[in-house]
Specification:
Helix content is 57%, strand content 8%. It is an alpha/beta fold. It has 3 domains: 84 residues, SRP54, nucleotide-binding domain (Four Helix Bundle (Hemerythrin (Met), subunit A)), CATH 1.20.120.140; 186 residues, Rossmann fold, CATH 3.40.50.300; 161 residues, 434 Repressor (Amino-terminal Domain) (Orthogonal Bundle), CATH 1.10.260.30. Strands 2-3-1-4-5-6-7 form a 7-stranded mixed β-sheet, sandwiched between helices. Strand 5, helix 10 and strand 6 form a beta-alpha-beta unit. Helix 1 runs antiparallel to helix 2, helix 4 crosses helix 11 and helix 19 packs across helix 20. It is elongated and about 100 Å long. Bound molecules: guanosine-5'-triphosphate and magnesium ion.
Length: 467
């Protein structure tokens, strides 16, 4: 869905993502590329402008959020803005009915947009999601076989279809269908109307008359996503005459570029309620702006990872660890604390599973030692050490090591290996601190008064866990 937009946006964000520091120059560059990606996706230029302005303003004033990698923070800004443009929240259908009268959903749109297909999809959705009895009314008397088309679709789904006849006027069809609906206990009546190749007065007048009779709870414009931002003019045209309650964007499964989805809400204020994602009757999705934004940005769950990290890591503890590393006093005891924090985050596998692209890397790791297994072994080793030993591992002589191996159910060689790699990482960390990696480690431990961050760990690219 919106693959090329997604690829382009990701391309422009990729460069920033991993960086611990982001310069204004970087941001300008990324913003330029984002602007281009949106225009290429046929997003309305006004929407592009307001999008870019908002992202720029937020990015430049964004020194607030501590403990989050600035690259990720920028991704979040873009994501949030995307969600805003898409409409922030999913908007439910209004299907309230009263006095035994069914709620009416009127489907309108240009020729071939997908009104009839979507009518059938919606009837299935209403039955499944709202547990209400739907009924379908074909009111397109102009196109030959249009009535048959809806009858067939309804029959396949077991949804009752009013037996319209092409010789009747649409208004007469609707009036009879209302009676039919009461008799058949239909709770939601879906009215499929005729399409035109473009907005014309005759069509609009007919739709206005139908609206007056039906008094519909919903008037949904069905629009082909392939039309891109052209659909804005179509939506405005229909909205001006009928007052639309929502939109359904169809054929999103094709190579639609995203222009319609991103332009229409912002420019018309009408919420997109559904996406049509295929020809079959179940190919209908509720439009969730946040999910779509995440899908477009393919963020994995970077942000929820960051949020969870912020929740579980005690800032004071983290700052203490950071100070100790700086003075080269990072002990095995501290290491255990860090490891426990990591466990709270769902273990290394949990963390990596949430990082984009890491799922793949995890698969490749599968036949090697599982990182979490190794974590468990190391924890057993540490737990078999006395407090004294954890404070200063240098007192670990041969007999102490043998005791620890026995106590943890491991081999002396494994204890040795752990101690050796611990020393290496201790050294590496203190060097990092000396090199003024406050920034990078700030992401791990929370920078001055920050909210804390990630415990130290290295992914599979950095060799085997943990060092
Ligand atoms: N791939 C895909 N095809 C769709 C989707 N929705 C509709 N179609 C196809 O688009 C074509 C037109 O759909 P219809 O439902 O007949 O469109 P309509 O708006 O009722 O057309 P008219 O009644 O002629 O105005 C059909 O071939 C549908 O199968 C969708 O979400 N994805
Ligand atoms: Mg039709």
């Amino acid at each position: 869905m919106f693959d090329s937009l997604s690829d382009k946006l990701l391309g422009s964000l990729k460069k920033l993502r991993g960086q611990s520091k982001i310069s204004e120059e970087n941001i300008q560059e990324a913003i330029k590329e984002i602007r281009l990606s949106l225009l290429e996706a046929d997003v309305n230029f006004k929407v592009v402008k307001s999008f870019i302005d908002a992202v720029r303003a937020k990015a430049i004033g964004a020194e607030v959020l501590q403990g989050v990698n600035p690259g990720q923070q920028f991704v979040k800004i873009v994501h949030d803005e995307l969600v805003r443009v898409l409409g922030s929240e999913a908007v439910e259908l209004d299907l309230k009915s009263s006095d035994g009268r069914p709620a009416i959903v009127m489907m309108v749109g240009l020729q071939g947009a997908g009104k009839t297909t979507t009518s059938a999809k919606l009837s299935l959705f209403i039955r499944q999601k709202y547990k209400k009895k739907p009924g379908l009314v074909p009111a397109d008397i102009y196109r030959p076989a249009a009535i048959e088309q809806l009858k067939t679709l309804g029959n396949n789904l077991g949804v009752p279809v009013f037996p319209s006849e092409a010789s009747q006027k649409p208004e007469a069809i609707l009036e009879k269908a209302l009676i039919w609906a009461r008799e058949n206990m239909v709770e939601v009546l879906i009215l499929d109307t005729a399409g035109r190749s473009q907005i014309d007065d005759q069509l609009m007048e007919e739709l206005e008359r139908l609206k007056a009779i039906a008094n519909p709870r919903e008037i949904l414009l069905v629009a082909d996503a392939m039309l891109g931002q052209q659909s804005v003019a179509v939506a405005e045209g229909f909205h001006g005459r009928l007052g639309l309650s929502g939109l359904v964007l169809t054929k999103v499964d094709g190579d639609a570029r995203g222009g319609a989805a991103l332009s229409i809400r912002e420019t018309t204020g009408i919420p997109v309620k559904f996406l049509g994602v295929g020809e079959k009757s179940d190919a209908l999705e509720i439009f969730h702006p946040d999910r779509l934004a995440s899908r477009i940005l393919d963020m994995g769950d970077v942000l929820s990872l960051v949020e969870r990290a912020q929740e579980v890591i005690d800032e004071k503890q983290a700052m203490e660890s950071a100070k100790k590393i700086a003075t080269k006093q990072f002990t095995v005891e501290d290491f255990l604390v860090q490891m426990q924090m990591m466990k709270k985050l769902g273990g290394l596998e949990g963390i990596m599973g949430m990082l984009p692209g890491m799922g793949q890397a995890m698969k490749q790791l599968k036949d090697q030692t599982k990182p979490d297994d190794e974590m468990k072994r190391i924890e057993a080793i540490i737990r078999s050490m006395t407090k004294e030993e954890r404070q200063d591992h240098r007192i670990l002589n041969g007999s102490r090591r043998a005791r620890i191996a026995k106590g943890s159910g491991t081999q002396v060689s494994e204890v040795n290996k752990f101690i050796k790699s611990f020393e290496q990482s201790q050294k590496a960390m203190s060097q990092l601190m000396k090199m003024g990696m406050g920034g990078a480690l700030g992401g791990m431990f929370g920078k001055g008064g920050g909210k804390g961050g990630m415990p130290p760990f290295r992914g599979p690219g950095g060799g085997r866990f943990p060092f």
